[in-house]
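Progress against Task 2.4 (sequence-to-structure conversion) is shown through the following example record, which the project officer requested during the mid-term review.
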Amino acid sequence: MAYSLLALLDDVAAVMDDVGVMTKVALKKTSAVMSDDLAVNANQVDGVHSTRELPIVWSIFKGSLLNKVIAISSILLIDYIYSPVNTILLIAGGLFLSYEGMHKVVDYFFKVEKISKEASSEQERIKGAVRTDLVLSAEIIMLAKSYISGAYLEVVSTLCIVGLLASIIIYGLVAIIVKVDDFGSYLALRGHKRIGISLLNSMPVFMKLLSIVGTIAMFLVAGGIFTHSFHIQVIPLEFLQNFIFGVISGGISLYFVILINKLK
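C-alpha cells generated for the chain above:
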C-alpha cells in the first residue's frame, strides 16, 4: 500500500515536472504575442481618467480569463474532432496578426484618419479590448499547443497554466504602466520633483515605444507561425526570417483587403 502511494506520488511529481518544462517553453514561444497584447491593452486605457484606469484593467482582465477558457475549450475540442483545423486556424491567426501589424505601419506613415479614443465610452473600451484579447488569447493558446506534447492531462494542465500566467503577466504589467504617471505626480508633490517629472515626461515616449515593440512582435509571431507550420528554413537567423515573412505576409494581406474593399 505504502509502495503504491509512493509510486503514485512519484508519477504526479513527474507529470508536474513535465508540465513545468512545457509551460516554460510555451511561455517563451508566446512571449511575442503577449508583448503585443500588452501594447494593445496599455493603449486601450490611455486617456482614461486616473480613477477609472484600474477598474477598467480589472474588467478586461476578467474578460481575458473567460477568453482563455473559451480558447482552451475550443482548441481542445477541435483537436479531438479534427486536429488539422487548428493548424489552419493558427495560420489564419498569423495572417490576421501580420495584417494588423502592416495596417499599423501604413496608418503611421500615411496618417490614415482614426476614430478618437475619447469618443469611446468606458464600456465600449472594455468590450473592444476583450474582443481583441479573444483573438490574441486564441493565438497564445494555439501557439502554446503547437509546442507542447504528452498525455492529455499534461497538455490541458500546461494550457491552463499558460493561459492564467499570460493574463496575470499582461494585465499586471498594464496596471503598473497606467499608474506610472500617477506615481510620478506623487513623487513630484512629495518633494522629488526631478524624478517625478522625469517619469511623467517619459511615459508618452514609453507608450510609443511599446506600440512599436508590439507591432514588431506581430510580424515576428506571424512569421514564426508560417515558418513553423510549413517547416521553412531559408535564413539562418530565425528572428530575421520570421520578421521578413511576417512583413511580406502583412503586405500581401493588406493589399488583398484594400482590393476587396475597392471591388465592393
